[in-house]
Amino acid sequence: MSGRTIAVMARPLVRGAVKTRLARALGDDGALAVYERLLRGTLDSAECVPDAALVLAETPAGDPGSTAVAAVSDAAQTAVTDPLTGRDARWSRLEQRGEGLGERLAGVFTELFAGGATAVVVVNSDSPALPAEYLEQAFAELAPGRIVLGPAADGGYYLIGAGRETWDAGAAALTKLLAVSPMSSPRLLDHTLRAATAEGLQVAQLPLWMDVDEPADLGVLDRLTGEAPLRGEPLGGLREVYLHVTHRCGRACRHCYDAAAPAGDELTTGEWLDAIDQCVALGARGFVFIGGDPLIRDDFVDLVDHITRRREAKARFFFNSLIDEDLAGELSRAGRGQLTPLASIDGPHAINDALRGVGSHDDVMTSVANLLAAGLDPVANTVLVRPALPGLTQLARELRTAGISRLHLILPHQRGMTWSAMDETRAGDHASASDLVPTGEELLAAVRELLAVAGEIGLTVDNLSSWRRRIGKRNDLCAAGCRDVSIDPAGRVHACVITAGDPAFVAGSLREQPLGEIWRTSSSLRLLRAARARDRAECLACPVADACGGECWVQAHYAARARGEAAGYAAPFPYCDLVRPLLEELAVGLETAAAPAAGDCVAVGACGGQAAAGADDYALFDCI
User: Cβ(407)–Cβ(460) under 8 Å?
Assistant: First the structure.
């Protein structure tokens, strides 16, 4: 070995010894065909990386440490074509050694570094063809004192890499780390991140990818390989873009999804103006400023002016800080009737300040008065964390008295509260997270009480109009990645703003690629577009799945991570007990609505979950 080395962990192509979970549904021959397809796709991807040595690291065909192989009779073990036949001459073979997968991984690293490799990236053979750019990125991320991980949707990882200097300095610790890791567990990624950090290592993460282990994964595999249409095809232009202009903020909200986001080099004014222009060129007609606190940026008014004056587009911005009379006037002039302030407030004085910090309630209410006086029409936004629920009706009355006519409700995104249920080192966070996240039943009772009061006082809870419009439609997840995107402070593109700062969901960087190229070619966005709500067992059995569309995959992903369960786009939506009863009631009241068309949702206009309600009914429970 010399230089960069890619090792593919694989099993021999033996009937009855691979993909045993799939075999229950497909039979041994079907499971073998799927595994061969995955393995060959992985080998193809590895060959796309130039100047890298390629190694097929196989378990022995009769490995006594493999329970799957040991359980197969000699007669059933029928080998097929050697996967390396006719392949690139760079391939060589290495036999895996060790009792468990972690020990065998450590053995592969040890042997390859002993053979002269300077950087080793090890990948699994259970995933759809891994994007070659992820392999290149893995090598680029390696540095002394750092390892690289490729997070899998099921909570494991599809790739792990290290440089020789890092391995030599900590071979014993890394070998032990791998040997005791809970392989094939949804807790694997979190465990490895914590254990590596405890050893003083930095961890770089690649974008999310997936393994194919269950029958439900086969639909995603077919879509990724072009054998079935992606959600949102034919791909159109952008509709709306979230500009996550800064991670900086003067508050310390307990439920902030952005609290752990890394600080970084923010885009300059010129770079943001160029980003906005690229979005408009792709069709975007609406922008949402968010952070952090976007008002911290000195150029915020200039960015708004560019959108409304130069690009004649609409804009909204979130705030929970003080906007004085002068700033309110500047915003009104820059907004030109196309700017909507979004006031973040979660309850009456005591409740709000306990969640968002002392003084937050007064600052927001003062800002609302100043914005109204300047001719702007703020919309209130409330996150439905558990402490906020008892104060919803009082908040509604306060808002109406203050002159606000619209309230938008946001279900908790648990990213800022994510913790592993098996992580004893963070056990103290359990009570905090549990206190903040309500059950669906709690949400349903609180929302019904709020709607009754809102009707009495003339306050519009705009989520309701979105639900009504979805009855009789065929929805499939949300529009993130199909019609909407987000750009984070450093210019990285994400499908959803809630994932800003999470490397698992980076679709590309504007400092490296034009937005149009990212929009059309990103493997991260392609994986999302391959997801369908009906890949979830819960949605297949739900009578209102067409109207619901599976709701928010981001809320589902981070809620599953918080529980220490398999996450990704197929994770179950955590608030079904709220949304399902309300949609069922609305469906009864709208029995004349047209039935959804037969077949899967494919067209962009039908794929959008609550985002399909459109900008006129800004009512996105699945969007903040």
Answer: yes
Write out pLDDT tens, residues 102-123.
999 999 999 999 999 999 999 9
Instruction: Give the Cβ contact number of residue 419 at 10 Å.
Output: 20
Partnered with residue 382 across adjacent β-strands are: 409
Beta strands in 282-365 (DSSP E): 286-290, 314-319, 339-344
Residue in 128, 136, 157 with CA at minimum distance from that of residue 527: 128
- 542 burial class (0-12, 13-18, 19+ CB within 10 angstroms)? buried
Alpha-carbon distances of 117 from 5, 53, 158, rounded to whole Å: 6, 9, 21
- Sign of the Cα torsion 84, 85, 87, 92 reads positive
Q: pTM here? A: 0.90
Rounded-to-integer distance, Cα 513 and Cα 536, Å? 34
Q: Report d(CA 212, CA 158) in Å as an integer.
A: 11
Long-range contacts of 538-542 (CB under 8 A, 24+ apart): 538/572, 538/573, 538/576, 542/576, 542/580
Q: Which residues contact 360 (CB under 8 A, 6 or more apart)?
A: 251, 320, 345, 352, 353
In DSSP notation, 534-548 reads GGSHHHHT-TTHHHH
Question: For residue range 502-553, what is the model confidence (pLDDT) as tens digits?
Answer: 999 999 999 999 999 999 999 999 999 999 999 998 998 899 998 888 989 9
- Measured in degrees and rounded to the nearest 5, phi and psi for residue 150 equal -110, 105
Phi, psi of 478 (to 5 degrees): -110, 180
Q: Going by DSSP bridges, is the β-strand pair 508-509/492-494 parallel, antiparallel, or unpaired? A: antiparallel
